[in-house]
Amino acid sequence: MPREEFLERTYISIENVRSNPEAATTLKQEGWTTQDTIQGLNLYQTAYGALADQKEKNSQKLASTDELRTAERELRQLYQQHLTLARIAVPYDRGIYQSLELSGTREVKRSAWLEQVRRFYDNINKIEVQLAPFGVTPEVIAQAQAMIEAVVAARAKQFTAKGAAQQARTQREEAYEELDAWMKKFVRAARYAFAETPQQLEAFGIIVK
């Protein structure tokens, strides 16, 4: 059963007991107390809030992922442009090529790639004169370095959001388990209390078999 439907049925059960004195009295005769109903209401509110919180945390996780992808895409475009210019404008020098990693393929893993980009811009001052005619000014380099930090910050934000979403999911599951246990207890009590008039169970959202 979808969680929203389960919550709705649980709420119907609780509210119909609370608003129906006769039903409450019948249940009470079988040992179901007002405190049992209040407990169910509290568990329902906790589960409802946990579901809403989990959805919000998941939304934040998705937003943080989109933010990271955007920051990374913009950095990749600028880095590739500067890398291409460096390979064109700078005569081969083993030391220069090694420090800026101008040769070879680019790293695939995100963390390794980001370190490769960082090393490039940490050493780009060594070829600043050759790149200047192409518009790669100190201001542009500073912008690229700021973009690196933006990617780092976006990654940290995503990790935090993922952790929060996972925690919210765990709390949601715990709240649902407690509410489900309460609901099973209520259904047993209701079926017993209304054994002679099972049609009344429909009012509590309980399907009569």
- Quote the average pLDDT: 92
Number of helices: 7
Summarize the main sheet. none
Give the count of structural domains. Answer: 1
Gyration radius over CA: 31 Å
| Topology pattern, helix = H, strand = E | HHHHHHH
Query: Could you tell me how far the N terminus lies from the C terminus, measured between alpha carbons in angstroms?
Result: 17 Å
Q: Unreliable runs, pLDDT <50, ≥5 residues?
A: none
- The class by helix and strand makeup works out as mainly alpha
The total count of strands amounts to 0
Share of helical residues: over 70%
What fraction of residues sit in β-strands? under 5%
Overall outline? rod-shaped
Describe the fold and architecture.
The protein has 209 residues and is mainly alpha-helical. The protein has one domain. The chain is built from seven helices and no strands. Helix 1 packs antiparallel against helix 3 and helix 3 runs antiparallel to helix 7. The chain starts with a helix and ends in a 16-residue tail after the last helix.
Secondary structure blueprint with pairings:
Elements (H helix, E strand, L loop, with lengths): L2 H16 L2 H9 L4 H56 L4 H7 L9 H13 L5 H4 L6 H56 L16
Helix pairs in contact: 1-3, 3-7, 5-7
